Amino acid sequence: MRVTNQMMTNHAIQNMAQNLEALQRLAEQAGSGKRFRSASDDPVAASACLNLRSVLQSAKSYQFTIDRTTDWMNANEFALQRAGELSLRAENLIERGLNDTLSAEERRTALATEMDGLLRQLVDLANTTHNGQYIFAGFQVKTKPIELADADTVVYHGDQGDIPQTIGSEQQVQMNL
C-alpha cells in the first residue's frame, strides 16, 4: 500500500482533532472540578465515586451519632458524679446521727432537714435533661422519671429501656442508664 501525502495529512488532522477534544475535556474538568459530567463518560470511576460518596455519608452520620451520644453520656456522668457526692454527704450525716453526741432534737432539726434537702437534690439530679430529654427515664425520655410523692416515697415513672446507638459498622453502644 502506498502512503500518499493526502493520507498523511488526513491522519495528522484526525490526531489533532482527537487531541483538541481531549484538551477540551481537560479544560472542562479544570473549570468545573469534575472528572466527568455523566456516568457514561467513565462508568468505572463513576461507580467508585458513588461508592465513596456513600461511605463518606455513612461516616458523617456515624460522627453525628457519636457526638450526640458523647454529649448524652457526659450529661449522665456529670449527674452520677454529683449524685455520688450527695450520697457521701448523706453517709456522713448518717454517721453523725449515729453518734451519741447529738440529742434527738438536734438530729430531728439539723440532720433531718439537711437529709431532706439532699433527697430533693438527688431527685432533681435524677430528673436531669439533655436536649429536652430526661436521661434516666429509659425509653420514656419525655416523661419526668422521678417524683417525690411525699417525704418518704419516691416514684419512678420511666422504664428499663436501653437506647442503643450505632457508632460504626457493626458497633453499638448503650447511651442511657
Q: Which key phrases capture this entry?
A:
two-stranded antiparallel ribbon; alpha+beta; rod-shaped; 177 residues; two-stranded antiparallel sheet
Question: In summary, what is this structure?
Answer:
By secondary structure, the chain is of the alpha+beta class.
Give a topology summary.
Layout: H1 5-32, H2 43-98, H3 104-126, E1 129-130, E2 133-134, E3 146-150, E4 153-156, E5 164-168, E6 171-174
Antiparallel strand pairs: 1-2, 3-4, 5-6
Question: Could you describe the 3D structure shown?
Answer:
The chain is of the alpha+beta class and 177 residues long. Helix content is 60%, strand content 12%. The protein contains 3 helices and 6 strands; from the N terminus they run αααββββββ. The strands form 3 sheets. It has a two-stranded antiparallel ribbon. A two-stranded antiparallel sheet has the order 3-4. A hairpin with a 2-residue loop joins β5 (164-168) and β6 (171-174). The chain is rod-shaped and about 125 Å long.
Specify the biggest β-sheet. Answer: 2 strands, antiparallel
Instruction: Categorize the overall geometry.
Output: rod-shaped
- Going by helix content, strand content and strand pairing, the class is alpha+beta
Q: Average pLDDT across residues?
A: 85
User: In percent, how much strand structure appears in the residues?
Assistant: 5-15%
Unreliable parts: none
Radius of gyration, in Å, reads: 35 Å
How many beta-strand elements? 6
Distance from N terminus to C terminus (CA atoms, Å) equals 87 Å
